[in-house]
Design brief:
By secondary structure, this protein is α/β, with parallel strands linked by helices. The chain has one domain (3-154): Mannitol-specific EII, Chain A (3-Layer(aba) Sandwich), CATH 3.40.930. The chain has five helices and six strands, in the order E-H-H-E-E-E-E-E-H-H-H. Strands 1, 2, 3, 4, 5 and 6 form a six-stranded mixed sheet that branches. The relative contact order is 0.21.
Length: 160
């Protein structure tokens, strides 16, 4: 399953444009939870926020290079779901490299889909590896524009 298959334009936001700036890790998790809940009638935003927050307590999902990949699993989900929050003003996230985070790509999935969940996290990491692409993505004027950029980049970096 490709990264863009778990996304939709309405689950991608540019913090400064859609919903106002994000100033903290807790605010980012809350905003990502709301995005992930979009279209998920069976799962409440609060449940998603709890799962992501619990995961962050174990170890930060800030993977370096200004990127964080918050993730978790929830009973009752039918499939993997992703959301992206772009923060033009970077936030502290306790990332592995100590740098603040600007790109947050969250993934939640059913508890029974551990293998697909791990493959998706690896795909997200590969997609966001290129520093020049990350810089272009952060300049996206809207969630819809960011979705188009992610889709094009995934087509470029997808393994043959």
């Amino acid at each position: 399953m490709g990264v863009c298959e778990i996304l939709s334009q309405d689950r991608i936001a540019v913090a400064s444009v859609e919903g106002g700036p994000v100033r903290s890790k807790a605010e980012a998790i809350k905003r990502l939870s709301a995005l992930l809940a979009t279209g998920q009638s069976a799962i409440a935003t609060e449940e998603i926020e709890r799962v992501l927050t619990d995961r962050e307590r174990l170890q930060s999902t800030g993977v370096g290079g200004g990127v964080a990949i918050p993730h978790g699993s929830i009973d009752g989900l039918e499939r993997l779901v992703g959301a992206v929050l772009l923060c033009p003003t970077a936030i502290e996230f306790d990332a592995i490299d100590g740098a603040p985070v600007s790109i947050l790509f969250a993934v939640i999935g059913p508890k029974r889909a551990t293998g697909e969940h791990l493959k998706t996290l690896a795909r997200v990491s590969r997609l966001l590896r290129d520093e020049q692409f990350r810089a272009r993505l952060l300049r996206a004027p809207s969630g819809a524009a960011a979705y188009q950029m992610l889709s094009a980049e995934e087509g470029r970096v997808a393994p043959s």
